[in-house]
Inverse folding.
């Protein structure tokens, strides 16, 4: 089954949406995401133990949850804090967002996102 | 050699509160932290953010929580080794732990409490292909000794407080030629320092390049030139002695990972049923750095873990001494002279 067929096959259960996360190795993860738990995309990734750090806990203060939006379910408009953080992050593209700033809602059914590369650190410090 | 009863690695809220609980049991503590200020993430990442789940505080700013904890532990006169990451742990002949920092400061105690949170905060590096060639040859991620930048040409990148603060410091105090480069028009730093930087740019005391970023480094044996690209894709080459990419810090578990402790998912496995002890007798792990079934990474849970752990530490240090749980309402807080 092709990706688009799969998305179309997703059911619209009231409190769950299906979201596809493509990890840094290109592997697709088809996740069931609750929409009534006040969760965001960063938290969803962590709850499925995907390699997303979310260091700051979701305050748009670290950019470790940068993702690329690969479908048109989410606006690419960023808040001021989110924009400021992305201004200091790398590998930023037009479709970059911080996962922690995207709330899980019913509109996201079928959303496809890709994890941005991890940032290198100065291990010698 | 610094000698104490409990060496606490990590001066975040949980490490700080450990001093209080240990103090009630007449145990002395010494804290080691890689950051220059106590408070851990609360000071480094979100000092101005309110926390709503500290019991008894409907809302408290993270920075104020740290300030209050420092006040609370004052009677117990803890020692601090700040700005130095704990890098090595050894056992002495008399079965004590010796913890050595990266700068070589040695600490000795019968008990070690690791309250290291997410780990050591280390600088984030920009992805530039030949960056490694110029590290310590003109490129530095933190300012260790400001003096070396006196009367030099310096380029600073970043939009947060450290980038702005250092740019202002060098331009104001040293007759250094400072260029500040930021990828957008707006900054994350405090409004005051942004305004000051703008004013200095107008007076040509700082060369401010907005909507720009450094994309290339060049020089023979040391940094001599950098290439800056702006939003209109123009490339400008600037001569410089130093480039300081100040893009903030991110935590990594760091040297602790190589101490022989059982690690699972980047955290230290502890025995939560008893006392948060690790697989090494005498080393405990509390707060965000540990893991056990049902673990919650919350400051309030870390406070509980610290309290339980200090009781176990007391028994470890004084195996034959009687001790009962004291209520502060009854006994008050009797500090050390």
């Amino acid at each position: 089954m092709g990706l688009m067929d799969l998305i179309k096959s997703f059911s619209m259960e009231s409190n769950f949406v299906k979201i596809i996360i493509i990890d840094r190795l290109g592997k697709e993860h088809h996740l069931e995401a609750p929409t009534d738990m006040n969760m965001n995309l960063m938290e969803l990734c962590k709850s499925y133990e995907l390699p997303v750090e979310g260091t700051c806990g979701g305050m748009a203060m670290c950019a470790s949850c940068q993702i690329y939006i690969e479908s048109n379910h989410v606006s690419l408009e960023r808040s001021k804090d989110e924009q400021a953080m992305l201004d200091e992050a790398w590998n930023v593209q037009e479709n970059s967002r911080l996962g922690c700033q995207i709330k899980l809602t019913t509109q996201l059914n079928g959303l496809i996102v890709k994890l941005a590369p991890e940032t290198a650190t100065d291990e010698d410090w | 050699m610094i000698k104490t009863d409990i060496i606490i690695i990590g001066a975040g809220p949980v490490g700080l509160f450990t001093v209080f609980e240990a103090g009630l049991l007449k145990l002395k503590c010494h804290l080691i932290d890689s950051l220059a200020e106590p408070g851990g993430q609360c000071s480094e990442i979100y000092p101005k953010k309110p926390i709503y789940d500290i019991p008894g505080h409907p809302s408290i700013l993270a920075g104020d929580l740290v300030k209050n904890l420092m006040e609370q532990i004052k009677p117990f006169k803890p020692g601090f080794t700040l700005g130095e990451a704990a890098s090595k742990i050894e056992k002495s002949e008399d079965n004590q732990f010796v913890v050595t920092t990266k700068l070589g400061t040695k600490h000795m105690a019968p008990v070690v409490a690791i309250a290291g949170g997410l780990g050591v905060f280390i600088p984030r590096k920009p992805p530039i292909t030949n960056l490694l060639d110029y590290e310590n040859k003109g490129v530095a991620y933190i300012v260790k000794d400001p003096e070396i930048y006196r009367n030099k040409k310096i380029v600073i990148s970043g939009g947060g407080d450290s980038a702005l603060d250092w740019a202002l410091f060098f331009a104001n105090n040293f007759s250094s030629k400072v260029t500040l480069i930021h990828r957008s028009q707006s900054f994350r730093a405090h409004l005051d320092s942004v305004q000051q930087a703008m004013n200095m740019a107008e007076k040509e005391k700082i060369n401010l390049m907005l909507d720009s970023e450094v994309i290339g480094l060049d020089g023979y044996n040391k940094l001599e030139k950098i290439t800056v690209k702006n939003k209109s894709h123009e490339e400008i080459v600037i001569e410089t002695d130093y480039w300081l990419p100040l893009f903030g810090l991110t935590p990594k578990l760091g040297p602790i990972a190589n101490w022989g402790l059982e690690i699972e998912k980047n955290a230290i496995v502890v025995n939560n049923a008893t006392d948060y002890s690790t697989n090494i007798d005498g080393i405990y792990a509390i707060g965000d750095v540990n893991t056990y079934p049902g673990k919650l990474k919350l400051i309030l849970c870390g406070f509980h873990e610290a309290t339980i752990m200090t009781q176990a530490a007391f028994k470890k240090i004084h195996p034959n001494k009687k001790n009962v749980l004291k209520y502060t309402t009854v006994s008050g807080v009797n500090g050390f002279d």
About this structure: The longest helix of chain B spans residues 299-317.
